[in-house]
Amino acid sequence: MQIYLDYSATTPQRQEVAAKIQQVTSTQWGNASSLHSWGERAALVLEEARFQVSRLINASDPETIAFTSGGTEANNLAIFGITRQYCQPQHLIISSVEHSAIAEPVKLLENWGWQVTRLGVNRQGRVDPRELNASLQGNTVLVSIIYGQSEVGTLQPIEDLAAIAHDRGVLFHTDAVQVAGRLPLDVKGLGVDLLSFSSHKLYGPQGIGALYRGRGVELMPLLLGGGQESGVRSGTQAISLIAGFGMAADLARKELVEERARLRELRDRFFELLADCPYLIPTGDRLHRLPHHVSFCLTPPLAGEVTGKAIVRQMNLAGIAIGAGSACHSGKLSPSPILKAMGYDDAMALAGIRFSLGKETTREDIDWTAMVLKQILERLMAKMAVLR
Quick check: is 328 catalytic? Predict the structure, then answer.
């Protein structure tokens, strides 16, 4: 039995998406900047996809969408696109639970002399809006707060945070890579100036993402060249990937309400099935949470002796794919900075595991996975008792 429960890392392409990509690759493969009919056909594909992607986040103007190579580039473009406009280092604010695609660029800016405030979070991983208000300074130029945390599933109060930043005339960006296609997104309602998201989290192709840039928001491009994507992202557009992204976004928008409810039901059942397991404690906010996300830490004495990566390997041997914290950190045996920021000690911050559900996940998958996980943990406990 094979069960995939790592949809936060990536999702499989839908058949409709794969078919769209194949069609465009075969018949509409031109350069969208060319003036002849081949270019015109590609340009039509490009603008249709831009419209589809813009509708997913309720952006009224498709031209506010700039296609990138993925969520990482979109985040980097948001951070550096704003900060590189300043000759002298200024001040910016992020949370202490950002994805590395935000945390690492900001760390580099800090090395270059920028002042950085990292807002703390509570045990559930939530930012207190009052702390943001107290942290804003006269030279603050950008606030960037992740919307849905990939490791622990916590959702941030983005609308409140953006309003606080705007009251002081400060731009606001959010990394919504984990949210897009899973929860309704409305850039106007949220009040954000910049929003990053990615195709492969919503059953589209890997290697393509987007940055929403509100009207009037100036960005300095990372890549210089032909001035594609309204001048903020030069380079010939990957038409087939963009078409696949557009198709995936359109399907996600149409199915979002029903799928969100289904995933929430499965998520809550999973938590309930493991509520009596003495070797696990849930992580993240149970109320303000991504609908597809379940996460735990091992408890002592397992924590300190067994890592989350070890549980991933054991589950994989049983034919079940899960994650150990952030996929982008899965190759490093070091405590999770996210769990550390939430107040967990080193042993527990090494012992986080994540289950993320998706379109193919069934009730039977959840029941079987919970049973297998309990058996693995009981076996590890028994082994530890013998060794002692």
Answer: yes
